[in-house]
Structures are given as C-alpha cells and as structure tokens.
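Help: read this over?
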Amino acid sequence: MKALTSLLTIPALLLLAACGSDSQQTELPQCDDEDVMELVHDIVKDEVKSQLFDVMLAQAGKSGEIIYERAVEVKGRSTELATVLDAVDEAVEQQDLRYSEIAQSSEDTALQKVWCSANMMSPGAEKPAIINYTALYSGDDVEVLVTF
C-alpha cells in the first residue's frame, strides 16, 4: 500500500512543477518606459553636444581638429577646450527637450526588443525632429540604441 501511495505522489509533484514553470512570463519593454526614455534622452543630449561642439570648432576655424568624445576625455589639459566644453554643456542643458507621439513600430517577443519612434522638440522650435530607437531588455537591464 505504501508503494502505491508513493507512485501516486510522484506524478502529482511533477504536474505541480510543470504548471509552476508555465507561470513565468516576461514582459516586453514599452517605448515610453521611464528607464527607456531616460536613456534615449541621455543619448540625444550627447549627440546634440557633439554636433554643437563641431559647429563651435568650425566657427573658430579649428574644424576637425578633435572630436567631442576625445575633447571630453582631455578637458582638464586645456583651459580653452574646457571653456568651449562648458559652453556646450550649458547651452544643451538649458534646452527643454520634449518627446511626443511615442510609438512602437515593431516588436520581437523572443528577443524582448521593440522598435520605436518619437517626436523630439524644444520650446521655440518650428518643427520636431523624429528619432528612431530600439529598446532591448535583458533581465532587469535595458539597452537603448538611438538612430539619428
């Protein structure tokens, strides 16, 4: 009789384990998730700073001498470079970039990836810029790639 009870208990435990594994669901990232939009905003600001830096160098007649990323790395070595970078940072930080019409164009549930677009505009601008980006979740982390 003990053997029969043991044989009935094992399939019941296996059935519970199988049902429990089905309850794990992963949620697809959303284009307007706070962490996604924060990363998009940081990437956009860095690109704007880079472009503004290039414009300022061109106006000073030093176009192409150094790229923005390298200038940030060596900022402490030159007061002239530090002054330009501070002006760039201040100008970009004063911009109130706003995002609207955030939309998802495609998704891949297996990869946990969504393709998105949004309008970006600062006050006083006549026409919004359209940005495209992807958000990829891996566990609790999100990776964002913005296409300009």
